[in-house]
């Protein structure tokens, strides 16, 4: 089993990896399918299903799909150009993706929200169709956005393709138990094994540069969030808080107001800064999703800013270790809120952050596995119930608390020798079962929980 660090940490746009990035990627894949077709297409249309329909407006799913059909990709997204293209599409009722000429597309008529049952296979389903000059469908594909920006066709999902199927890697662990056994046999750390796997696919130079860019984008996002004020879009009128909290914390340094517990506020403000940027549609890194994008960067900033002896040279080991844990969760359970609730998003992110922090604090592989388990275990059962379908309430604060749990989990694990009662594999399987048993109204549909008990305006 191999999931690259660049699969777990993808540069993209807010507010959602599964509802914004995934549909944009699916649309791009459909354009490739149209380009390969032996006939000429005259138009395109689609339908959004399940969670993509119920919370699609709040997550800008329709906008992301339209821009994807126009040729945009998350990693190269240009906001100003996107605004201009959207205006042109609304006026002309057409799109002009590269290599396909001008295609008929009326956003109000040709992209529909289907609020019926989920498509078989996954809660985040969408169907894209190409039409001829008469408007008849001549090409059709069903896509599922399975979390973290990952997209699979109906056939791929049915075949169980959940990971990379390329050439074998040196350390192909599919479970935490296998990972620990390989560490013991090889004498390598989790980060060293993950690095060897990455190098076997793309070379050390590209891997090192890529990981540095991931952290740079994460850190830039924190800084933007901590320096921006205003109200977030979407209608809830949620005010950005990260800058105000950061400014107050700086002002309180060296005073009698600088209580020890305020380190928790720093942890939270780093995470909230990221998720406020995400809610505003800014550039973020999936970690492993957009909705949970603040946890891992916040833990890294906590380490660099507040941990004695911290070094930015260790960030690579942090991210490689975190990616290894995230890959295990995705392969054996889910990182999708629409599939398993927020335990699969913030819970997974906390496990990844705890593992990464434990690694850079000198933890053994067993302590790292223990840290990940502690963090995930104490998110089990967490629902995904965003108010008005927006990635704002409770998502922004939830990332702050997820970071605090991750750091506490790493610290607890470091106090022990790595032996513990509940294996990480058992915790991941429990999360999968809990997600399967969870009612759909608590899985990113905004049909239950806070979403129906808090006024939407």
Strand order of the biggest β-sheet: 5-2-6-7-8
Number of helices: 20
Rg is: 22 Å
Order of helices and strands: HEHEHHHEEHEEEEHHHHHHEHHHHHHHH
The helicity comes to: 40-55%
What structural category do the secondary elements indicate?
alpha+beta
Uncertain segments: none
- Form type: globular
> Mean pLDDT, nearest integer?
96
Instruction: Report, as a whole number of angstroms, the end-to-end distance.
Output: 46 Å
| Overall strand count | 9
Strand content: 5-15%
Secondary-structure blueprint:
Blueprint: H1 5-8, E1 11-13, H2 17-36, E2 43-50, H3 51-54, H4 61-69, H5 79-92, E3 94-95, E4 103-104, H6 107-110, E5 111-114, E6 124-131, E7 137-147, E8 150-153, H7 154-158, H8 176-186, H9 190-202, H10 204-226, H11 242-251, H12 263-279, E9 283-285, H13 295-306, H14 315-332, H15 337-340, H16 346-360, H17 365-377, H18 395-414, H19 424-437, H20 450-453
Parallel strand pairs: 2-5
Antiparallel strand pairs: 1-9, 2-6, 3-4, 6-7, 7-8
